[in-house]
Amino acid sequence: MKKFIDKLAYIHIQDKKILMSLSKGKSTWYIPGGKRDKDESDTEALEREVEEELSVNLISESFIKYGVFEAQAHGHPEGTVVRMTCYTADYKGMLKAASEIAKLEFFPYSRKSESSPVDHLIFDDLKKKGLL
């Protein structure tokens, strides 16, 4: 039986590059976001996670659902699937790595291999749509 990990991701594109985050002590880059707390909506969870990780405040009215992607969860037993619900949104503030995040960088498509399997699907989709 498949086990699902429910995650949310914040897609921020600049100059055909996507914002990626590297957690302290990790070698794989991830699209910023995380898991929801009990009873949080997608937008509430993503607003909280992005503020914790990136030091900016997402603007609630600007949220646009980008899509949902599923893949084998990185670093989890076979059959564990991450379901990533992705959104774009505008923000207030200056992007700055915070909390457990060591670094933020904008990745071109050519750096896709440094990210997790579910992020590969998102990179491919963004590339297909001409966004990366």
TrEMBL record:
<keyword id="KW-0460">Magnesium</keyword>
<protein>
    <submittedName>
        <fullName>Protein containing NUDIX domain</fullName>
        <ecNumber>3.6.-.-</ecNumber>
    </submittedName>
</protein>
<dbReference type="InterPro" id="IPR000086">
    <property type="entry name" value="NUDIX_hydrolase_dom"/>
</dbReference>
<dbReference type="GO" id="GO:0046872">
    <property type="term" value="F:metal ion binding"/>
</dbReference>
<keyword id="KW-0378">Hydrolase</keyword>
<feature type="domain" description="Nudix hydrolase">
    <location>
        <begin position="2"/>
        <end position="131"/>
    </location>
</feature>
<dbReference type="Pfam" id="PF00293">
    <property type="entry name" value="NUDIX"/>
</dbReference>
<comment type="similarity">
    <text>Belongs to the Nudix hydrolase family.</text>
</comment>
<dbReference type="GO" id="GO:0005737">
    <property type="term" value="C:cytoplasm"/>
</dbReference>
<dbReference type="InterPro" id="IPR015797">
    <property type="entry name" value="NUDIX_hydrolase-like_dom_sf"/>
</dbReference>
<dbReference type="GO" id="GO:0042262">
    <property type="term" value="P:DNA protection"/>
</dbReference>
<dbReference type="GO" id="GO:0008413">
    <property type="term" value="F:8-oxo-7,8-dihydroguanosine triphosphate pyrophosphatase activity"/>
</dbReference>
<keyword id="KW-0479">Metal-binding</keyword>
